[in-house]
Specification:
9 helices; 291 residues; MetI-like fold; disordered N terminus; mainly alpha
Length: 291
């Protein structure tokens, strides 16, 4: 005979079963979708010098402010430069800044956060005191201040965004290390008289790499947006070097008669940002399934 308890638990069991069946599919779809958007942008950006496109920096006043057409698929800007060529050239710069800054921030955060969380005491107190000072400022405001100090340019912007994102990576890594320190396998390794650095290299760091890869994907999306904002404000990548931010700034005075100048670089920023977040979601789901 079916009891009330049986009928009450069955929907929950069915829901849990369906949820477990959906999660692998969700992880696969988000990973594939993220890569399907991101990889073509990266490939086109890297291969753009080999494509039969006009120079992204050479002006052609005779074709200024031409709308999208067969000869110029995304139109031309105020001095006749091809918007498609400039958008693809800007992809190289913006992706270089975003990915490099994210990798450097996560790598630095893993080193500092591991030392703070594992060594503890005075080392932890000093490192986290400095980290909390930087965390008291919004990332964009801190990046603006650092660019004002370092100056404009590709590597200066990378350095500014790295320093702005580093404190969050430090805190996240430290929290994972503190959690790992209390795990039974760490106690067993200590009882076996394992050296501190062996514990770090063998047990701590490998268990934090995968989650920090997910974090790096999200940081890359944020870094691209921050770089675009800095370049839009005239504080980032200096023209004539194209980046998505200064391309949008170039088209700002021509939003009515030349809407395409700003629109297509803006669409590129949105698509790449979405793809990186989809990639991060897919990786996170994969990791949770592996656990």
């Amino acid at each position: 005979m079916t009891t009330h308890a049986d009928t009450a638990t069955r929907p929950g069991l069915l829901t849990g079963f369906l949820s477990r069946r959906r999660r692998p599919a969700f992880a696969h779809v988000t990973l594939v979708l993220g890569l399907a958007i991101l990889l073509p942008v990266i490939i086109l950006g890297l291969c753009s010098p080999l494509l039969p496109l006009p120079s992204p920096t050479a002006p052609n006043p005779a074709e200024a402010l031409q709308p999208p057409s067969l000869s110029h698929p995304l139109g031309t800007d105020r001095i006749g430069r091809d918007v498609l060529a400039r958008t693809l050239a800007g992809a190289r710069v913006s992706l270089l800044v975003g990915l490099t800054a994210a990798i450097l921030a996560v790598a630095g955060g893993m080193v500092i956060g591991t030392l703070a969380g594992f060594l503890g005491r005075k080392v932890d107190a000093i490192l986290m005191a400095v980290t909390n000072v930087f965390l008291s400022f919004p990332s964009l405001l801190l990046a603006v201040a650092l660019v004002a100090i370092f100056g404009a340019g590709v590597w200066q912007v990378i350095l500014a965004i790295t320093v702005a994102d580093l404190p969050r990576a430090v805190r996240m890594q430290r929290s994972m290390v503190l959690s790992l320190k209390s795990r039974p396998f760490m106690d067993a390794a200590r009882m076996a008289a394992a050296h501190t650095w062996w514990l770090l290299v063998r047990h701590v760091v490998p268990n934090t790499v995968a989650p920090m890869v997910v974090v790096a994907s999200m940081y890359a999306a944020t870094a691209i947006v921050v770089e675009s904002a800095l370049s839009f404000l005239g504080l980032g990548i200096v023209p004539p070097t194209p980046s998505w931010g200064n391309l949008i700034a170039d088209g700002r005075p021509y939003l009515r008669e030349g809407w395409w100048i700003s629109t297509f670089p803006g669409v590129a920023i949105v698509l790449v940002s979405i793809s990186l977040h989809l990639l991060a979601d897919g990786l996170r789901e994969r990791l949770s399934l592996a656990d």
